[in-house]
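Subject: complex prediction, re-run

Hi both,

The earlier run crashed halfway through, so I resubmitted it with identical inputs.
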Amino acid sequence: MIAIDAMGGDFAPKAACEGAVEACTKRSNLQVALVGDSAQIEPLIAKAPADVLGRIKIIHTSEVIQGDDHPSVSIRKKKDSSLVVALRMVKEGRADGLVTAGNTGAVAAGGVLILGRLEGIDRPALGIVYPSVSRPVLLLDVGATVHCKPVNLYQFAAMGHIYAQIFEHIDNPEVKLLNIGTEDIKGDEAILSAAEMLKADDDINYCGFVEANELSEGSCDVVVCDGFTGNVMIKFAEGLVDLIKTEFKKEFKEHLLPKLGLPFMLPAVKRFSARIDWTKIGHACLLGVNGTVIKVHGRSRKTQLCYAILGADDFVKRDGLVKIMEAIAKR
Amino acid sequence: MIAIDAMGGDFAPKAACEGAVEACTKRSNLQVALVGDSAQIEPLIAKAPADVLGRIKIIHTSEVIQGDDHPSVSIRKKKDSSLVVALRMVKEGRADGLVTAGNTGAVAAGGVLILGRLEGIDRPALGIVYPSVSRPVLLLDVGATVHCKPVNLYQFAAMGHIYAQIFEHIDNPEVKLLNIGTEDIKGDEAILSAAEMLKADDDINYCGFVEANELSEGSCDVVVCDGFTGNVMIKFAEGLVDLIKTEFKKEFKEHLLPKLGLPFMLPAVKRFSARIDWTKIGHACLLGVNGTVIKVHGRSRKTQLCYAILGADDFVKRDGLVKIMEAIAKR
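This time it finished cleanly. Structure:
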């Protein structure tokens, strides 16, 4: 059973409800719980086939954590919010995992306050898999821990190492720290100290600094940065991809030649778009808390919610959390 | 006379020498000084026409500041390095401005140590003009000041405001602070404090926070962030654009249909590439120091150096520095 924070995100509760219906349609044994205002949720799923409806539970809640709410304060005060109730379901074993498009700060705070941290982990990280030219690159943190101490970056590297081993099946993943130069001297204190900690850890295949322009080439398997930088980076990429799409559409509209060429190009454009499609790959896993939490972008719609729900289900079925806990305990 | 740090960057001194020849060829009254190892420089410009050669001076230096040198230490110790000598030429009025592809940290440190800061400015910022869908967006800092206090971000906003007025001819430029959420509560202490300072300044049209995905839409005229974040962002964009190019080339190579469509598409691709061409627009201006300093990417080649030299010449001819100094003094 995957709990879905139906009230989080810009298109709530529509996106979550439609995403839940689509995920249950795609996967016939999937069970989900839509957590939120039942009066809004019910009509949005009413038209789903009986088989699907039978696998969707509605858990009514009366409060919503907004995008501008203070993360930890709202988790403490809004006890009947969709996010808090859904996190409680995971905590109490009534759900196996959670999917949310809500306030990133509140998701990270709620993960820590309600689910608790994994033993030995100071702060959680949101990890996202970035489709580089040569290999998938796990980028973390993309928004859970805005300010990072050296130990946070070090632990993100350790969790990323484990995640890449378990989910990307890479024996000895190459781990790098994001910096503004690849030379040893560059970067700020926290990054330099984290680099020293990583060099001293024989279990982690630490390969030095990586500059942001090398991410797309896929110069390593795991890239570690603080949550502010990671969040800015993925959002900037999103905007840049939108800009490129807009500009190309303009070309097709305003000029005859490209319009004539369009039928030749369409399959290529589609293949390409599929490869960098944020709606399918854009969900992030909250690592370091005692539960499975998948966070999607606040702007997510049906398709992205659907793939995030399926992703959460995969993570649960593959015992992701247990494997990460075991690996951390062994360290 | 524009001084060029011929030894800075990955393709030194070739890129700087060829860029200087190209710039002097394009602009018939331009005079430049190539600062660096004369034994390496001379053969690289030997084939230039006499008219061009007559406007290129070589200033021999014996040292080079490397990419992995410590910024302020190398400026103090390598007194006969191309960067230090070129900065001294600007300081002493023997050159009107400087173009360099060298170590960003050393350029910023050298700017402060040799040229001095503008009165009232605590730290310099590198500003770059980003081509959004709707308008040019001045992004600063992209690498001069890695860690920023609130006053630094505030002063970057003030300098950005002036730069946009002078060079983009915008009366009342919209200035925003880069953050990981647009709500007032988000972001770190330095950003929140800078926001308060900007709200209290009636001369600056401060319009709140901007998220990185909105940059490409062009939601304002000036975007302010710390040097670490800005540097990561532009480098990530660079890598992403490279990835997109690589993937598209693959499509044309591997599939017949796009290959057939290519002749229809080429003009569109060319127009589009020209719009986001980092080689022409990718140079950054070091704001806040007492001299004209243009920094280009370390990976820059001939064309980018050429456009940066022309950009420096424009800045000088338009009295950029004097106008910025006057505007700061008036505040």
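Chain B touches chain A through 64 residues (CB under 8 Å).

- K.
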